[in-house]
Amino acid sequence: MEELVSQAVQTPLERADCPLPEELRAYAEEQLDAAQALQIAEHLVLCQRCRRQVAAYGTSESG
Ligand SMILES: [Zn+2]
Questions:
Q1: Ligand 1 centroid to 1 CA: how many Å?
Q2: How high is the mean pLDDT of the chain?
Q3: Ligand 1 centre from 13 Cα, in Å?
Q4: Is residue 8 exposed (0-12), middle (13-18) or buried (19+ Cβ within 10 Å)?
Q5: Predicted confidence (pLDDT) per residue in 10-31, tens digit
């Protein structure tokens, strides 16, 4: 009776130090400084959840 466990481990790359949603949005809109953008870019490499979040913010043009 441990079926729920399999669903809990779908995202092993999830990290606790995710940027704020506001920061991710600013990154998607290219409103951050180069240093800040770099930090988030490095985080996105490790965190697919945030990548998808940024993608959701930045899908107004350029498909
Ligand atoms: Zn993240």
A1: 31
A2: 81
A3: 9
A4: exposed
A5: 555 555 689 999 999 999 999 9
